[in-house]
Amino acid sequence: MNTTTKKEVFLAHLKEYLKAPRTEKSKILDGLQMVTDIHRKVGGFFKVRRGRKGLSATTPSALKRLIPIFTGPWQDKPPGFGQVDTVVHCGSSLLGDMAHTLNYVEERNGHVIRKVVGYRRFDCPEAVDALNELYDVLTPYLMHFVAVRRTLEKEKIQSKYRRTYEQKPKTPYQRVLEHPLIDESVKEKLRKEHKTLNPLAMKHEIEKRLERVYAVQKRHGKSNI
Which domain of life is it from (predicted)? Predict the structure, then answer.
């Protein structure tokens, strides 16, 4: 989608967003993200709406007392090392019960869970099941077909950081196949799996299951924030 088309779609969603009731605004924003990938502009909406993008439910200092923490360096670590994080689906309040997503740390903040699922609150067991069904398709789609550029270097200049990225983005699937320390049997299993996947069909299924997540929360949840 070129810049002109993105602008047209964005303005159309903006008009719809301004006229919509509060309960429908999140759905409009989520739809805009899925269609145009304009996550920065969507982030601006959330700043107006709540004053911040989301809420944090993790305190690193507390976690360090419970979980052994590896602080680095992370460069050139062999397969088997990983970072995980939790994403809380709390909407605008951390009070009460709510769903959490446990995921590997993203290359960039908000790259996966917030970009796809958004910032809504999910607070019923049925929504947890629907989220897991969504991730059953979303995970292989991201691993096989979504390429990202890794950060090669991060340099702090006064109060800001300057990052240097790879020139060519790669999917996690490609990185596994290229890694010399991963067994060939694992690579062959991934190649066979890759041949069975249809990215367009998977994208449609992701959108379908995402709509079900919202519908389940609306039907069974305590809040639609």
Answer: Bacteria
